[in-house]
Amino acid sequence: MQVKRLAWLGTRTEKFDETTAFFRDVLGIPLFHQESGFAMLQLPGAERDFVEVFASDNSFAASYSTGPVVGLLVDDVEQARAELDSAGVELLGPTQWLQSMDGYGWFHVRGPDGNVYAILQDSRPPG
Q1: Quick one: pLDDT at residue 101?
Q2: What span, in angstroms and rounded, lies between the C-alpha atoms of 57 and 19?
Q3: What is the gyration radius of the CA atoms in the chain, in angstroms?
Q4: How many structural domains are present in the chain?
Q5: Residue 123: what pLDDT?
Q6: 41: CB partners within 8 A, 6+ apart
Q7: Over 80: is that where the pLDDT of 33 sits?
Q8: Element containing residue 94 per DSSP (H, E)
Q9: Is residue 127 a part of any domain in this protein?
Q10: I need a labelling partner for 56 at 20 to 30 A (CA). Which of 13, 38, 69, 119 fits?
Q11: Using one digit for the tens of pLDDT, what is the confidence trace for 81-101?
């Protein structure tokens, strides 16, 4: 496994509206999708790099308890998962695949520092 770049950021906050407005209005990151308690903003220069804001009562992001979560891009998320599992890294839940974006998948791990990290890919490997 080789990490290619940081490609995603997720944050869970009690100040959902203010945080969403900060990313959108102050930092100028365009809103891609929003629903109750969740906002997805698209980072410039990359079609599938996002900042996601979760309200504190959003159960999907319940593990985001130590601060913002960064997503590390790899070529093959399932290969990375197997390697991390073999290395004894704590895996948090199954690999998720976003149905509306073919090949966009991720899973979470807990690092030795106690923080949560996301490992993701943005296209399915050949074969």
Answers
A1: 63
A2: 15
A3: 15
A4: 1
A5: 62
A6: 20, 23, 24, 29, 30, 31, 32, 50, 51, 52, 53
A7: yes
A8: strand 90-97
A9: no
A10: 119
A11: 999 999 999 999 999 997 766
Helices (H), the chain: 16-21, 77-86
Domain membership of residue 13 (yes or no) is: yes
Is 41 within the bounds of a domain? yes
Range of the domain at 37: 5-121
pLDDT, tens only, 57-86: 988 888 888 889 999 999 999 999 999 999
The answer to whether the CB of 10 falls within 8 A of the CB of 64 is: yes
- Compute the distance between CA of residue 106 and CA of residue 69 in angstroms, rounded to an integer: 12
* Residue 51 confidence class, pLDDT cut points 50, 70, 90: very high
Alpha carbons 91 and 111: distance in angstroms, whole number: 9
> CATH no. for residue 13?
3.10.180.10
Per the domain annotation, does 91 fall within a domain? yes
**Which pair of structure tokens corresponds to residue 122?**
């943005």
